[in-house]
Amino acid sequence: MTLELAIFFIVAAVAIFSAAFMLISNNAVHSALFLVTNLACVALFYLMLNAPFLAMIQITVYAGAIMVLFMFVIMLLGAEKIGGAQGPYRWLVPAAVALTTVFMIVAFIIVVQGNVGLLKPVPANPELRVVHAIPGAPAVDIYLNDTKSLDTVAYQGATEFGKVLPGEYVAKVFLTCPDNARCADPIASKTKPVLETNLKLDSETTTTVVLAGTLDQPKVILAPTDLSTLTDEDTLRLQAVNTLPTDTIQLIKVDPATENLPPDNAGKKQAAANAEVVIPDLAPGMASGAAVLTKGNYDFVWMSGDTRLLPVPDFIGKPKTSELLVLTQEMMPSSGTARPTLIRVGSVPTNESYGSPQQIGYGLLSTFLLPFELVSLLLLAAMVGAIILTREEVVKRVRQRRVVSESAVQINRAVAASQPNAESSAD
């Protein structure tokens, strides 16, 4: 048995016994203190699951603020003691203790023999997005295994990351049907796709598919995208894809102050000294690795050897994001020459660490918003009901204390009747 499993059993035993004593205690204050102990054990469970933020919220909100409210209600209504004679179901408490003991024994056997520590989490499904970088091509539709997955991806456009099942796929790219036109299903009509390729998507992977080349000779460039958690919250990842046919390129960070220097040897040396290679030699049809940058404004220049291909001024790097730059080329209609063009795909937030405030906020305000609000309403209704029931019990006790016996009533009447006679004799 590992140390972690031993600590789990100790904390679990304390949590179970504190919950049991909370229910069977005849003193409401003692029950509240047992509940605080139980909530503290839950906070320890969160710490063991590497969720320190949830653990602190459990302590400060539940074991702190809410329990103060409970104690305030208990003291205000004077319900420290649960009075009244024992009910007719005297066997209920021993039966509950026996069932709880049996449940604990069965749970212990299941946990020990189930090799809980050896279980692994279910791997996440792969995520996929497509970037349309074929110059002059109309919008396209993407089919995976003859099923339309992405609709109307325009040139220089990119889709959002979407989850798919892991496995091997046959990806087919068809031109989108024009507006106000009737087009047959390309799969049913066996229309020849613009591009067809095989994709293998594994679990726990995030892939960007870049459609490049030309309509006559299209090609696919796969760019594995790293969306894992950044250790420094003030950094971002920058990745590039080179779709140029022949040029090997570099992405250089430059200083705008040295860009306007005179073209002499001194100016060239100073500009070269202030330049920094962000993405080194990137061959045609390749995707680079992710470069980690600090958030802020940058000025980049795409270089091919000593030739400046394209400047990228005023690049704003947002923290905790992943940026993708795709360098392609377009034909100029006037001159018929190719001109480098940059496609900047929108920034994608990186994954938040488990248990962080951001990760909890995303979950609560998206998937769990409605259940969270419903549970809040149920807790509010339960608190109001508990206050009403406690108040009725307190009022009942006060009325019982105010009831005067018949003999006391007769004595009070006799005293009241004798008072006028006593006053007349005194006169």
Give a quick precis of the structure:
The protein contains 8 helices and 17 strands. The chain has helices spanning about 5-25, 30-50, 50-75, 90-115, 265-275, 355-365, 370-400, 405-425, and strands at about 125-130, 140-145, 145-155, 160-165, 165-175, 195-200, 205-215, 220-225, 235-240, 250-255, 275-280, 285, 290-295, 295-305, 305-315, 320-330, 340-350. Strands 9, 12, 13, 16 and 17 form a 5-stranded mixed sheet that branches.
The SSE string, one letter per element, is HHHHEEEEEEEEEEHEEEEEEEHHH
Query: How helix-rich are the residues, as a percent range?
Result: 25-40%
Note the total helix count: 8
Structural class: alpha+beta
- Taking pLDDT < 50 over at least 5 consecutive residues as the criterion, the unreliable ranges are none
Strand content: 25-35%
Query: Could you report the average pLDDT, rounded to the nearest whole number?
Result: 81
* Strand elements, count: 17
Q: What is the CA–CA distance across the termini?
A: 96 Å
C-alpha Rg (nearest Å): 37 Å
The quaternary state of the protein chains shown equals single chain
Query: Strand count, sense and closure of the main sheet?
Result: 5 strands, mixed
